[in-house]
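Why predict the complex rather than its parts? Because the way molecules touch one another can change local conformation, and only a joint prediction can capture that. The input here totals 648 residues.
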Amino acid sequence: MNSFCITTPIYYVNARPHLGHAYTTIVADALARYHKLLGEETFFLTGTDEHGDKIVQAAEKNKVTPQEFVDGISNEFRALWPKLGIANDAFVRTTDAHHKKLVQKFLQQVYNNGDIYFGEFGGHYCYGCERFYTEKELENGLCPQHLTKPEFISEKNYFFRMSKYLPWLKQYIEENPNFIRPERYRNEVLAMLESGALEDLCISRPKSRLTWGIELPFDKDYVCYVWFDALLNYISALGWSEEGSRFEQFWPAEHLVAKDILKPHAVFWPTMLKAAGLPLYKHLNVHGYWLVRDTKMSKSLGNVVDPLETAQRFGVDAFRYFLLREMTFGSDANCTEESMITRMNADLANDLGNLYSRVLSMNAKYFEGIVPAMPAVEHEDDKAIRELAAECMHNYRQLFGQTLFAQGLDSLWVLVRALNKYVDSQAPWALAKQGQTERLGAVLYTLLEAMRKVAVCVWPVMPTAACAMLEQLAVPLRDGMPATTLDEEIASWGGLACGAHIAAASNLFPRIDMPKVEAAAKPAKAKKEKKPEPEAIATGNNIDFDAFKAVDMRIGTVLVAEKHPNADRILRLEIDLGEEAPRQILSGLADFYQPEALVGRQVCVVANLAPRKIRGLLSHGMVLTAEKDGKLELLTVGAPVPNGSGIA
Ligand code: ME8
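Output of the joint prediction:
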């Protein structure tokens, strides 16, 4: 059985967990689950980084001992992960006795090999980064991370002969193009290595300056530099050097980090491993930063996104989906309330949720909730869906495995959207009306089987929703996950059991209302100079611009569609126009559309038409249509937009 090990950075315990920490850990969880779904044995490691100056300062500020301080925040991280659907296998703390013991063992080994030496050193020390900078690394004399002036410190310290391994590292990265990915970060590291700015690494701090660290095994007056200690968590947690440990099965691991800690992971860590004669990690997977309205999250700006609060508001699975779908791995991405609601409504409520809801309710209506028989002879349209499902799942598998999560999910949604279109084109309601029961059964079987496959595929990203979807389809789970592997699903068709009793309804991802922007909160528009009125060329049926502007046209999503109780040709619609409550609008669409086919669709509405009663029901607004050969076609938008968006 193949083994797969994934790690996150171990987070500093000087600040509470925020969106960035949650993102990396959710990605690691999704990757671990993806490999489980491939039938592999997986190990997922996260934890907290608890030594160094920053911790001592934070503890002092909070008037507690460093140990009390780290215990508190480390527990907060540990307790958060299950609430975000994260199932890590281990949680390492750098203050654990076991970790300390293995750090000392590693230091002693490298020291005995002659790669650690004692020397006098003067350098520019940045307290924010907890490291020395060389002259060349500074930007205009300032720390490039914090833009503060470092302090020049001269003291005796221990050094790791990193420079000895740099030419080898450069060659290794050149020969293994995927070792650091995406490519932009690989190039950044190669540029660093070519710059000549890197020297030996100072790996100790005298106890006279810092005591909160791991004592060097060969000198009691010094503690280990926090980064040297922290990086070793990746192997100490696996029990490196211990007989029968997980290290043998799970090392080398895959690492996951953001761009802020590229250098320690891409330069310090591989050279440390090389010096100790250990195999290198498999890949360093580097992602970008989550921004809030293009701005870095920071306490002082008050724009730090609390992951738990957000997940509780939108649902854990929807939040996880958003994070994986919205960020192109490697680049920065924006997290705003609007971007979350737009993405969740479009992909989850409209596409996936609506598919489940309409197909399950049709199956309940036409087959009493029993899965119809798989057709003996395959119809061409059904074959196209079967083939598309295999293709989309194959693409999803390939892309996800290369950390291209957004692209992978997008390929899967090609299938989800095609299934919704297939519902519209096959029109099960028309087949039912015409008594074509066999064809109707074939269409519903095709849909339900493809929906089952989608549920299996999304399990790594949305574990709870995927299990709920499988339960709705009466598909048994194994150990809380799909019982079939991703590869089995790609290669097969027809796994859904005919005759099973399945759910009659589904409401997986309710639509989320976009909060209205208060007029007062909008920035005041600068008064514009009055432009000269364009001369109206008033002829025939033309109206002037003011008359056009007076028509309030908006986009909305159909939430409910049903026949008017007293008028055969009219449908009663409830449309979400981004207002507090949905609008009731009556429309003469009954001859052209089945009500089920309209639910979830976005339509264009004239919103300020005076309300009027039609056969006893009030209609407030008009749905816009185009007429062709006496048939009405709904006007719609090319891509989903927030409800209430104006038409101009
Ligand atoms: O650097 N967007 O810990 P740390 C995305 N202890 N991810 C973000 C982010 C953002 N805005 N902000 C933080 C440390 N992260 C060291 C690591 S490892 C041996 C030692 C995530 O608490 C991202 O994963 O500062 C980033 O690399 C990590 O948090 C930094 O966490």
